[in-house]
Design goal:
4-stranded parallel beta sheet, 194 residues, 39% helix, 4 strands, single chain, globular
């Protein structure tokens, strides 16, 4: 949808992703978001140097962990991204599945600094650019409490943002109408804001 509208689409697999060996994946241990955000920003700077890319109109999108990264990029990316869509974002790793989280972050008791540094509610006041947060209210993977907490802090910080909720849907949107509507809403958001 985006490429058809003239957008350059670029996927970045930052440090910590699979398929590149243990050392590459272990780089993010106890500090989720730190190196991955550096990699997203570096990729945006690379794109900004291309003659056919307008550096003032770079956006970021992600869902689930990618939603965490998109929200983090808008809150802590120092204006690198003009617009972002964060789908079902983890906003506080204390609210996510311990079996998965503790593999990377250990426990909040043994890694207080890492949990605090990746808590997006602590960064809400630094939002730069246009942000759309999407989340299904029945998400069984990333519970809606993540988005609710971020929304509360964005409101308290008097930050403008957009929120789109799908009542009754889950982490993987299933209803055909919703599956068709979501990509259109995301594309429309970028078309309006980039």
């Amino acid at each position: 949808h985006l490429a058809d509208r003239g957008f350059v689409v670029f996927q970045v697999d930052g440090r910590g992703c699979g398929g590149r060996g243990r050392a590459y994946a272990q780089k993010v241990h106890k500090q989720l978001g730190k190196y991955e955000l550096e990699d997203q920003i570096a990729a945006a700077h690379y794109l900004a140097g291309l003659p056919y890319v307008d550096a003032s109109r770079i956006g970021i999108y992600g869902h689930s962990y990618g939603g965490f990264m998109a929200a983090l990029a808008m809150l802590d990316g120092k204006g690198t991204f003009a617009a972002g869509v964060a789908g079902s974002p983890v906003t506080d790793w204390r609210l996510y599945d311990t079996g998965s989280t503790e593999r990377y972050m250990e426990t909040p008791e043994t890694n207080r600094e890492g949990y605090e540094a990746s808590d997006l509610s602590k960064k809400a006041a630094t939002l730069v650019g246009k942000l759309l947060v999407t989340h299904a209210s029945m998400d069984e993977n990333v519970h809606y409490a993540n988005t609710a907490r971020l929304v509360d802090v964005l409101v308290a910080s008097d930050k403008r943002f957009d929120l789109f909720t799908l009542p009754g849907e889950r982490h993987g949107v299933r209803a055909p109408a919703a599956r068709a509507y979501m990509p259109e809403r995301i594309v429309g958001f970028f078309a309006e804001n980039l």
